[in-house]
């Protein structure tokens, strides 16, 4: 009996992307084996962190890296590091930030909610979020002005569906922070395949969700300046105690980084493109469905499938199609942000061939 049967759990096909409420991603057998092996062994945890740092350096060319519980933890601990360094006194005192620089500036449109408000990650470190500009946009000069007054850090996000307003040029924002002598931290949670570009902005730290496209056990990777990464690790003896990486997570991350290093990116892209193109061709054969491939909006190297539903021809609208897929067995979950506009959006990256076929069968039963 497997876990789903043993606990009467819903079988899910997650076509909604690296979506946390649906179990995020699917690890490879080698990553799963590494995590399982780690669970049955003891380690000097500092050595595991050193190995993860070395692997991060190999993968990205950055100075250092550390593993924490997740990207949210990575944001909080990066801010703690920027505020307090690794001073034992401050590590013990946080989130009481008395006497420390505690303003963290972010463009107003970057104050997103990815399942909870990101400003909470700032407050957890004892810092105060300061929003620059408005939801419509934020000029570099507005960031620079907000950073003038005892700022601890500048927090930036990669443009995505979550981010509001005109795009902020990350390289220019990082340069503005550096003119004020303030470290810049980029939340690149779902952007691990673009980490080189994010580090190339000059950011002092980049935070990645390792369980998203790297498909490791749940873990956050904080990669960048060696002194700040050291300080992130120092906070494990402070607020980071509740945000620590487990041995199985670090060993899974090591295995996942090893796989990423060995990955033939061109071949991987080819496989993804073929999967999407095959799906689009078959979906276009269904009544009332106009399917097309659309590049990932945040610049990751794969496409999503957009299905425009013509309610007259399909017999139901996009909301009803998504609902029909969800209530089927297995339950097929799609991205929900396009439904009101008449589009069912799917991401196929983590899915097996049989799951992709099951989605097409589900659509066939609903359309026409
Ligand atoms: C997923 C996500 C996070 C949180 O990642 P966790 O690893 O689940 O904490 C933070 N920021 C953004 C933009 C995300 O997409």
Explain this structure.
- The protein is an alpha/beta fold.
- The protein is built from 15 helices and twelve strands.
- It folds into two domains: 29-262, 3-Layer(aba) Sandwich (Aspartate Aminotransferase, domain 2), CATH 3.40.640; 264-366, Aspartate Aminotransferase, domain 1, CATH 3.90.1150.110.
- Helices cover 41% and strands 17% of the residues.
- The strands form three sheets. Strands 2-8-7-6-5-3-4 form a seven-stranded mixed β-sheet, sandwiched between helices.
- The chain starts with a helix and ends with a helix.
Brief characterization of the structure:
This protein has 368 residues and is of the alpha/beta class. The chain has helices spanning 3-6, 29-39, 45-60, 71-84, 88-93, 119-124, 140-146, 170-179, 195-199, 226-234, 247-262, 265-283, 311-314, 318-327, 353-366; strands at residues 12-15, 64-68, 103-107, 128-132, 151-157, 184-187, 205-209, 220-224, 289-295, 303-309, 331-334, 343-346. The two termini are 37 Å apart.
